[in-house]
# Entry
Amino acid sequence: MVLATQPEQQTSIELLDEVAQRVLWLATRIVDAANHDRSNPDGIKVGGHQASSASMVSLMTALWFSHLAPHDRVSVKPHASPVLHAINYLLGHLEAEQLTTLRSLGGLQAYPSRTKDTDPVDFSTGSVGLGATAPLFAAATRRYVDAHFGAKPSSRFIALLGDAELDEGNIWEALLDPATAGLGNVLWIVDLNRQSLDRVVPGIKVHSLERAFADVGWLVIEAKYGRRLEAAFAAHGGELLRRRIDEMPNDEYQAIFGLPPEAVREAVCLGDGDLRQALDRYDDADLRSLLGDLGGHDVGAILDALAEADRDPTRPTVLFAYTMKGWGLPFAGDPLNHSAQLSSTQIDDLRVASGVTTANEWDRFDPTSEAGRLCAATRARLDRGPIDPPRPVTLPTSALGTIASGKGTSTQESFGRVLSNLARTDAGERIVTLAPDVSVSTNLGGWINKVGVFAPEALPDRSAGTSVLKWEQSPSGRHIELGISEMNLFSLLGQLGLAWDLSDEVLLPVGTVYDPFVCRGLDAFIYALYNGARFVVAGTPSGVTLAPEGGAHQSSVTASIGLELPGVTFAEPAYAVALDWLLCDGLARVADLDRPAESLYLRLSTRPIDQHPFEEARVRLGEEPLRAAVIAGGYRIRDPEPDGRPRILLAGSGPLLPEVLQAADALGEEGIAAVVVDVTSLDRLYAGWTENRRARIGDVTAMPRLPHVWRLLEPGTPIVTVHDAASHAMAWLGSVHGSPVVPLGVDRFGQSGTIQDLYRIFHLEPDAIVNAALLALGA
Ligand SMILES: Cc1ncc(C[n+]2csc(CCOP(=O)(O)OP(=O)(O)O)c2C)c(N)n1
Ligand SMILES: [Mg+2]
# Structure
């Protein structure tokens, strides 16, 4: 690793220990105040994690006050949020009043949050495992940014994670992907306290974990024992003690700290006379404290390990730091300490031990003291200075070009074409695509042929001449190919989508995934949005329209997911031009840093459909009004004048539009006027409607903007909704004007068949839509 800035001098260990004790005090008291100093009208426990925080105090103190450089980025394990806030406070990024606001509305968040905390937080954490891998994907993003836009000041991307986070599969998916290999500026520090939430993790897992990291090319280092234990090992007979501790299973080691001091010796020696003799020089209390002298709480050992981590710039490093959950607190090492909190007497004792009083317990260090000067120097050292605002990126409103009229086309095909056409525009250089081994089958081929595949070093194209797909891999490539991990897709999308903040360049990330497998990466999708990331994702193909592929590949719940997720707009256009407009507009929103973050989720299909009905609507409505309506969520593709006939409104999305239009024709022949609404974005319609409702709930006299959906539907006209997705997603349309609704959709698992077969069994074919309309009219 190359350091951007080295701390000018090695800060003395004693001084760092003094700061660590204050950090421990503040972190513990922040949780205590949240639970005891505030009124608690709910009567439920406020909570907070004093033990998990204590475990991290020495590591974080050493990092911030002696090791970090200004451009480094750190992800802090969720339950150490009080430690991060305590450090940020000592560095002057929070006011004392804020320290008593943990877990209150507008206060310090329970888990570090990029978007809700007011002090510096680089990565949100909370769902264990995801915050841990975020810096790895941020480093992959930086590698891409440096290769395309010139090197930024170097950063180290650091994750501080709990040992039980390594149980999460996403960790291993992230490590194994070639896209994250060889990132020499990545450091993971595992807080190895051998405890998870419920228990001491049995056995000794660390060796297999270390081997697993080494196998995938990581440098593995340890901060295992503190200086006192190392000295004891070096003394006469000390080797016996080292072997005994090394071989002791976690639960046995941990149990020692629950014993009275006088029982510790026998628990360690278990009748071994030589070992007992070697330990004779320690009294009972000394022996117990000696046994707890772990590397992750010895600032000197930590700094040595951090220096070692910096030595190899060619590969990522993991540091296993042995720690004690609850270090320095009365319940250190207790298997049930996860949610334990100090009593008020214990808080009083800690206050005294930390050298503060009730009068100055929330104060920063005296600025003239050594510790105060260290805080000021640390703040100055970590100051990033002014940063040039990212260059604005402009997008065209349309990029599809002409499509052969009369020929049916699918939204997936058009998606590939729009991207390809964007390659040569100004925005094109900012677009980076990625796919979990589905580039070809999601139609990224044309784009890849134009822009190439990203690799940190140029690699030979072994498929040259043998395939229509070129696979040129070089640092200038603009497609990142991932292994089949949808979790990695969304994890990387999330970090590419934060490049504007963590790497000072705007990227327009576009991911593709088979729509059913959105669910496979859903947690990382949610995490990316919660972090404020900006990106486009296309779920394609989708629904039972992917007929022969069968039920395992046919998505049905994804429309509801897209509709309900905050921070992303879900859209499901039917026609090529609508897709083009929505995609260009979505990318423009991604690029516009002045707007709140808004990503775009396109649910697409491989079914070619006739484009004429859209062209007719374009002529009837005019280009600009139609474009505005498509982006607002829908337009009337059939709009019969009221003429006294009974009226029905058919609302459909995506590849089912041909069936809906046929049903409208059939209803016309029965003397029923059918309005057909092509719902291009159910999400925009719903958002507009609920925004209107919410404004009126807040103020019953308010006259908020009429939502687009209000005019799209009409009072008194029953509705049939037709969706290649769970029928529930569109059923709410009936509530807009209080109209009867018959929702048609896919509410069972699918199976193989032809499109017609599947539409028939799910009542999505024209005859069924007509029957549903008659039912709605009857109701
Ligand atoms: C995805 C997810 N599952 C479950 C939890 C609940 N949970 C919170 S902490 C924790 C154990 C964490 O243990 P570890 O990572 O070792 O942290 P420690 O508290 O020991 O420092 C669990 C299961 C969570 N936050 N996220
Ligand atoms: Mg743990």
